[in-house]
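Quick review question:
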């Protein structure tokens, strides 16, 4: 059985990385290189098997921002998207969910039941959403619908928002129409 890492072990790993680290350009240095600010958002799952820098071969100067949470849901990150669009002028959004997602395994009801045991008098728990899904392709369509239905998302940005399914076995992205 594989043992779980600890924060102290992660800090030791960081020391090894820092010893070989090559400085990443600052925002000012990137601008001086003539690189435009990021204009693409990739929104995906927090699962460590679904790493957009890997499956899209991203570099710091590519102009791509990554946002991650359970299953890559849009709703919890709408404010972030709006702030980034205001500041940077986002051109496109890529919503990427993946095969074998853990959000297929748990249910919102499981999380609520656990929280109710810990907080039996909290009635707000019943109204919470925790990101569980039953169909990955449908969840991509649902997240595209959430994004496009927001009255604050610019029409041009909504029209340039697309959904994809990342297959963790093949590494391929498949477009999912929303």
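Suggested answer, residue by residue:
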């Amino acid at each position: 059985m594989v043992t779980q890492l600890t924060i102290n072990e992660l800090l030791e790993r960081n020391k090894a990385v820092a010893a070989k680290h090559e400085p990443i350009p600052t925002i000012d240095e990137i601008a001086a290189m003539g690189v435009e600010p990021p204009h693409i958002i990739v929104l995906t799952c927090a699962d460590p098997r679904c790493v957009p820098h890997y499956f899209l071969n991203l570099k710091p100067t590519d102009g791509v921002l990554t946002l991650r949470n359970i299953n890559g849901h849009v709703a919890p990150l709408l404010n972030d998207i709006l702030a980034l669009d205001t500041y940077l002028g986002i051109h496109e959004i890529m919503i990427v969910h993946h095969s074998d997602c853990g959000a297929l395994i748990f249910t919102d009801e499981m999380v609520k039941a656990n929280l109710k045991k810990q907080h039996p008098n909290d009635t707000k728990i019943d109204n919470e959403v925790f990101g569980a899904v039953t169909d990955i392709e449908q969840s991509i369509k649902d997240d595209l619908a959430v994004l496009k239905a927001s009255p604050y998302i610019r029409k041009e940005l909504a029209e340039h928002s697309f959904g994809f399914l990342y297959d963790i076995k093949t590494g391929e992205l498949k477009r999912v129409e929303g």
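Why it works: Residues 36-176 form a domain with the Beta-carbonic Anhydrase; Chain A fold (CATH 3.40.1050.10). The first helix runs from residue 7 to 20.
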